[in-house]
């Protein structure tokens, strides 16, 4: 649009007559309409970035999964809400007396963090637009989550535990 305005403004008045405008418009429209398809997010060589079919084809809906949609949303909210009483219980009790609370608190904190970081990766570095780095970041996050879970288990089993750590940090 801007290029056609620029061309029209720089042309002499004689060429910009009614017939000249129609010729120029038709030339620009032929150039603008090409045989390539529009690819959302830009053209890639990845096979999933090419639109196939027509506008009259039915939409293929994904299969229902309990890991997506309202079940996933409800689980995230329940997990976030349960962290408040578990952290409060960590202040009241001692970790050596309640190792189950240590385990639940450690697992809940790590899973809450994983879900938050995974949402950021899915929203901002999705694999449709970033076909190489998107899956790499997803698997890096999964690997880091497993590593942190192992570390929290070792800390709870062989050291003072999360509830004792929270109590010491709070009173320090």
Annotation field: number of helices: 6
Principal-axis shape equals: elongated
Helix content: 55-70%
> What does the average pLDDT come to?
76
As residue ranges, the low-confidence spans are: none
Number of β-strand runs: 0
- Total individual domains: 2
Strand coverage percent: under 5%
- Report the CATH architecture of the largest domain: Up-down Bundle
The biggest sheet amounts to: none
Structural class category? mainly alpha
Under CATH, the homologous superfamily of the largest domain reads Fumarate reductase/succinate dehydrogenase, transmembrane subunit
Order of helices and strands: HHHHHH
Signal peptide: 1-16
Subcellular location: Mitochondrion inner membrane
Membrane topology: Multi-pass membrane protein
Organism: Suillus discolor
Overall description:
- With 172 residues, the chain is mainly alpha-helical.
- The protein has two domains: 2-49, no CATH class; 70-171, 3 helical TM bundles of succinate and fumarate reductases, CATH 1.20.1300.10.
- 63% of the residues lie in helices and 0% in strands.
- The protein has six helices and no strands.
- It has helices at residues 2-10, 18-32, 70-92, 99-124, 133-158, 162-171.
- α3 (70-92) packs antiparallel against α4, α3 packs across α6 (162-171) and α4 packs antiparallel against α5.
- The longest helix is centred in the middle third of the chain and has 26 residues, at 99-124.
- The N and C termini lie far apart (65 Å).
- The mean pLDDT is 76.
């Amino acid at each position: 649009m801007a290029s056609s305005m620029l061309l029209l403004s720089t042309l002499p008045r004689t060429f910009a007559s009614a017939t000249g405008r129609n010729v120029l418009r038709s030339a620009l429209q032929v150039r603008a309409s090409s045989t390539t398809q529009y690819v959302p997010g830009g053209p890639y060589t990845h096979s999933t970035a090419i639109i196939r079919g027509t506008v009259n084809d039915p939409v293929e809906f994904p299969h229902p999964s309990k890991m997506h949609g309202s079940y996933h949303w409800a689980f995230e909210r329940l997990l976030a809400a349960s962290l408040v009483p578990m952290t409060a219980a960590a202040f009241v009790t001692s970790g050596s007396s309640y190792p189950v609370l240590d385990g639940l608190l450690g697992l809940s904190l790590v899973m809450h963090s994983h879900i938050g970081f995974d949402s950021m990766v899915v929203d901002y570095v999705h694999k449709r637009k970033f076909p190489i780095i998107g899956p790499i970041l997803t698997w890096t996050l999964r690997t880091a989550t497993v590593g942190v879970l192992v570390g929290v288990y070792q800390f709870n089993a062989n050291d003072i535990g999360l509830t004792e750590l929270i109590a010491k940090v709070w009173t320090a």
